[in-house]
């Protein structure tokens, strides 16, 4: 029988825990996403891994930073708050997109808390030639719409390429909206888009945590050269490409991603 889903609060951070036995793994979502991006993958580990996921501040059910000044260091602190709330001494840490950058930063700050780290389809270095809808949206006010249907009509993944069907995509959108005092808006603080990120290259050679780096075969976010370069810079890292998946690997290929992470987890020391 599957363990019951539990939710807990870690200060301003909301955590969802799938429960069960196995080695603990904490999952970190990408920019403008939330824990539900992991719903297709997390239950697949069954008793092999105990999965939990957090909403970073400014996302999902977690609190927003009052002055709107978000920084990678604050989100790394959110990961540590979630670990403490779960009562885990050591864990596997897995992040997608923005989460991929954050788990590497966490590994640099708290290597003693990790059995291993998995970074999935992320941008190692922000470049001006990588235009995105997020970049174009910086500086805009938080959007508010008069109805849920109108807002859901605006829901898109970034980038838009995905294998997710229309019904599943719409259900995912419902997890990303809320009704406020003046109308419907996203469960995402638009001001997060102003966060700046340094390149990850300087921290990689010094990391001493077993690492898995993955990309979707069809991703336009992390190319094969970047995958190889990140894996080469991380001492002893494994690299894997998930066939058929676009950038949103946990949505597009949850079984293949879960299998790759389970294989990686099985290779780690207790």
Q: What does it look like?
A:
- It contains eight helices and ten strands.
- The chain is of the alpha/beta class and 270 residues long.
- It has a single domain, classed as Alpha/Beta hydrolase fold, catalytic domain (Rossmann fold, 3-Layer(aba) Sandwich).
- The strands form two sheets. It has an eight-stranded mixed beta sheet, sandwiched between helices. The protein has a two-stranded antiparallel sheet with strand order 7-8.
- Helix 1 (72-86) crosses helix 2 (98-109).
- The radius of gyration is 17 Å and the shape is globular.
- The protein starts with 5 loop residues before the first strand and ends with a helix.
Labels describing this entry:
alpha/beta; 270 residues; eight-stranded mixed beta sheet; two-stranded antiparallel ribbon; Rossmann fold; 8 helices; 27% helix
């Amino acid at each position: 029988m599957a363990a019951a889903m539990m939710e807990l609060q870690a200060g301003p951070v909301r955590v969802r825990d799938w429960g069960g036995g196995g080695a603990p793994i904490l999952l970190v979502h990408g920019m403008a996403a939330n824990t539900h991006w992991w719903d297709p993958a997390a239950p697949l580990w069954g008793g092999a891994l105990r999965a939990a996921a957090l909403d970073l501040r400014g996302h999902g059910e977690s609190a927003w930073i009052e002055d709107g000044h978000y920084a990678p260091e604050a989100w790394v602190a959110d990961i540590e708050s979630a670990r403490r709330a779960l009562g885990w001494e050591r864990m596997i840490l897995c992040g997608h997109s923005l989460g991929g950058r954050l788990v590497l930063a966490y590994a640099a700050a708290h290597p003693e808390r990790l059995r291993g780290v998995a970074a999935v389809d992320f941008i190692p270095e922000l470049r001006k030639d990588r235009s995105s809808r997020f970049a174009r949206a910086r500086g805009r006010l938080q959007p508010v719409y008069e109805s849920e249907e109108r807002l859901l009509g605006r829901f898109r993944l970034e980038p838009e390429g995905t294998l997710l069907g229309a019904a599943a995509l719409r259900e995912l959108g419902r997890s990303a909206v809320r009704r406020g005092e003046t109308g419907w808006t996203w469960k995402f603080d638009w001001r997060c888009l102003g966060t700046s990120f340094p390149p990850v290259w300087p921290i990689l050679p010094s990391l001493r945590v077993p690492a898995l780096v993955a990309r979707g075969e069809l991703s336009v976010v992390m190319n094969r050269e970047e995958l190889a370069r990140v894996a080469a810079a991380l001492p002893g890292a494994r690299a894997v490409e998930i066939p058929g998946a676009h950038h949103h690997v946990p949505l597009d290929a949850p079984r293949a991603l879960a299998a790759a992470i389970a294989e990686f987890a099985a290779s780690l020391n207790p």
